[in-house]
Specification:
Layout lengths: L7 H6 L2 H21 L5 H10 L4 H11 L2 H15 L15 H37 L4 E6 L2 E7 H24 L3 E2 L13 H10 L3 E2 L10 H27 L7 E2 L19 H22 L10 H30 L1 E2 L1 H9 L7 H10 L4 H18 L3 H7 L1 H6 L2 H7 L2 H4 L3 H9 L5
Parallel strand pairs: 3-4
Antiparallel strand pairs: 1-2, 5-6
Length: about 450
């Protein structure tokens, strides 16, 4: 399933070839750092850097026999050193390390590479949201609560809300990825029994990581759980955007829709259909990443200094979460960037209830003019419910109502039904979200 949704760059990060390459990078960094401290012969470290290699097929073959992936890997590297004519140098490979020193530290490198792609995807998405928010800054639409018409908004405000959330999503992913910029080479129970603290720090520095202040045999998994949570929140935003497009594309609404390509078919049985299939896919796949959060949290608690109950889980949830987040960001960016918007339909929908959506402003104006709020509510709601059931003209009813006319002039009533009045603070909101912008 992963390959179907993988962009080449992200797919490479989580390929078997790259996983073992990162293992090798950790091994070589360790040999070189230890050589600098006189714990490994400098010549051996140099030969390892020059000739060390592996074969994924050979690793898999060896693992079938030894049932241990790291041993299979180091055996494959030793074979490569022997083939290069330097078998003695392989004695210094994996020197002073335990398996998870390599696996956890290398996985940190994979997660950092994944985070860079995801942050780039978020940056692109944020730019798209900003562009479209400004484009529709003053495009008037009806706001809905509980799916029911509420008060006027602009379509740009809807997108600006997504933009604000995307900025937070980026901040979370960046912070969570920084919490994962750690390696550990502190041994079987984290006591640095076979390496010194400064050697561990030097190895991590060569890899662009920090040494974890303390670890067991593994890095604490709260770091990984926080990262998957941050990814899930980014995907939840993708779902939020896609769900709104799905609602707005409904036949009865038709205010916005996802692109429909020439030659695209919506249904095998109904030629008229234009279904929001990409939006639905986004909503579905976001659930997968969200479900992975639970598994990531389950990985936090391990027996004593380590068991392997987290290992099999992470082989699924970390690649899948990174790949799907990258995919969903790209798909949602495409969706919003190319979304078709229908301002005329928005205007018709806003006006379809003949002024009902201004009932709140009229209530406030009547109270300000001297009518008791309870009485004003009774008058406005009574006519509103009548207009709702009879599809009557609410504004006309209010203009003719004696209690309303007793408190408000014709000009004041008109002002209560002014959409410009309702949206007078759009510029102020945009300034708070975006700062100084044109348009």
């Amino acid at each position: 399933m992963i390959e179907r949704y993988t962009r080449p760059e992200m797919g490479h990060i989580w390929s078997e070839q790259n996983k073992f390459q990162q293992w090798l990078e950790v091994e070589l960094a360790a040999s070189e750092a230890l050589a600098e401290r006189g714990q490994v012969p400098a010549g051996a470290a140099a030969l390892l850097r020059q000739h060390a290699g592996f074969s994924v097929d050979r690793i898999n073959e060896i693992e079938k026999e030894v049932r241990h992936d790291v041993i299979a890997f180091t055996t494959s590297v030793a074979e490569a050193m022997k083939a290069a004519g330097h078998p003695e140098a392989s004695r210094w490979l994996h020197f002073g390390l335990t398996s998870n020193d390599v696996v956890d530290t290398a996985q940190a490198l994979q997660l950092q590479a994944s985070a860079r792609l995801i942050l780039a995807g978020l940056d692109k998405f944020i730019a798209t949201l900003r562009r479209r928010a400004v484009e529709f800054k003053h495009t008037i639409a009806i706001g809905r609560t509980h799916g029911v018409h509420a008060e006027p908004i602009t379509f740009g405000l809807k997108i600006a809300l997504w933009y604000d959330e995307a900025v937070r999503a980026r901040r979370r992913v960046e912070a969570a990825s920084e919490d994962l910029r750690y390696g550990k080479l502190s041994g079987a129970v984290g006591t640095l029994a076979h390496l010194t603290a400064d050697a561990e720090e030097a190895i991590c520095e060569k890899l662009g990581l920090q040494a974890a202040p303390i670890a067991s045999q593994v890095l604490a998994r709260d770091r990984h759980a926080a990262f998957v949570s941050a990814l899930a929140l980014a995907c939840a935003l993708c779902e939020k955007c896609a769900l709104e497009v799905r609602h707005l594309q409904r036949t009865e609404v038709r205010e916005a829709e996802e692109p429909f390509a020439a030659g695209q078919k919506g249904s095998s049985a109904m030629p008229h259909k234009r279904n929001p299939v990409v939006s639905e896919q986004i909503c579905g796949l976001a659930r997968v990443v969200r479900a992975n959060v639970q598994a990531a949290f389950e990985d936090v608690a391990l027996w004593h200094e380590r068991d392997i109950s987290h290992s099999s889980v992470e082989r699924v949830i970390l690649p899948d979460s990174c790949i799907l987040t990258d995919y969903l960001l790209a798909k949602t960016d495409w969706l919003i960037g190319n979304m078709r918007v229908n301002p005329e339909r928005m205007k018709r929908n806003l006006e379809s209830t003949k002024g009902l959506v201004f009932s709140g402003q009229l209530l406030l104006d009547l109270a300000a003019a001297g009518m008791l709020r309870e009485q004003a509510y009774k008058v406005v709601q009574g006519e509103a419910m009548k207009a709702w059931h009879e599809e009557a003209d609410f504004r006309a009813a209010m203009e003719a109502h004696p209690d309303v006319r007793a408190h408000l002039t014709a000009e004041q009533i008109a002002w209560a039904f002014s959409v410009e009045r309702q949206l007078k603070n759009v510029d102020a909101i945009f300034h708070r979200v975006f700062g100084e912008i044109e348009g």
